[in-house]
Amino acid sequence: MFKKREDKLFIGYYTRSVVATYIGVISACLGIYFALNKHLVYAIICLIIAGICDGFDGKIARACKRTNEEKSFGIQIDSLADMNSFIFLPVAISYGLGLNSWYHIIIYTLFTLGGIIRLGYFNILAEDSNKDKGVSKYHGLPVTSTAIIVPLAYIFKKFLYVTAFKTFYTLIMFFTAILFILNFTFKKPKTKWLYVFVVFSLIMIAYLLWNK
Predict the structure, then answer these.
(1) How many other CB atoms are found less than 10 A from the CB of residue 202?
(2) Which of 107, 58, 108, 106 is nearest to 82 (CA)?
């Protein structure tokens, strides 16, 4: 059992071990605001920034000296942050694109449900793993992949007719929802791929701003 912290003004933890997670959440909240107000480029940039924060939050946390309580809190808060950044924000972006027919609602429901199941399952694996090293392999498609999938899908908007793009984007959301819970595994990418992702993300941001 965790010790009570009755002497603290606020519950939770606010150390540098979770700062990247909190920045990602702030970015996602701004992204949802932009998406619902049709500023889609800014919304997608916020999604990319949230993805970059998620890529580093685990490494930052493991580099810090933490109690077992702080480690468990980190696992839980990370998944809650991912729900906001990589499930709710992509759905908001989809609504911002005008994809709000009845079948879109069904797909968004599947997307949300699949993402939540994926995160819940990840938490079980993370609790059973070495908290100082994290999980060694992924089961199902990580929800953080939407930080790449959604921006790339949006970029195709420039090259496709409106109807074709809407169909393409809808299918992307549907298959991503399925991949969240599909029973397949792959090794966690090494650190060098994280830096490749950062460079690629910066290129996408530059492209989106240039073609805004």
Answers:
(1) 12
(2) 58
**Taking the complete model, does pTM exceed 0.85, yes or no?**
yes
Of 189, 105, 99, nearest to 141 by C-alpha is: 189
In the chain the beta strands, taken as DSSP E runs, fall at: 137-139, 185-187
In total, the chain counts a number of residues equal to 212
Question: What are 69-97's pLDDT values in tens digits?
Answer: 888 888 889 999 999 999 999 999 999 99
* Cβ contacts of 190 within 8 Å, gap of 6 or more: none
Nearest to 22 by CA among 80, 71, 66: 80
> Tens digit of pLDDT for each residue in 122-166?
888 777 665 556 667 888 899 999 999 999 999 999 899 999 999
Residues pairing with 138 in the sheet: 186
CA-CA distance, 197 to 52, in Å (whole number)?
Answer: 8
Give the whole-angstrom CA distance, residue 108 versus residue 64: 37
Q: Is 18 exposed, middle or buried (0-12, 13-18, 19+ CB in 10 A)?
A: buried
> Alpha-carbon distance 145 to 71, whole Å?
23
Query: For the chain, which domains are there?
Result: 16-210 (1.20.120)
How many whole angstroms separate alpha carbon 66 and alpha carbon 165? 47
Q: Is 211 helix (H, G, I), strand (E, B) or coil?
A: coil
Phi and psi, residue 187, nearest 5°: -65, 145
Q: CB-based contacts of 109: which residues, under 8 Å, 6+ apart? A: none
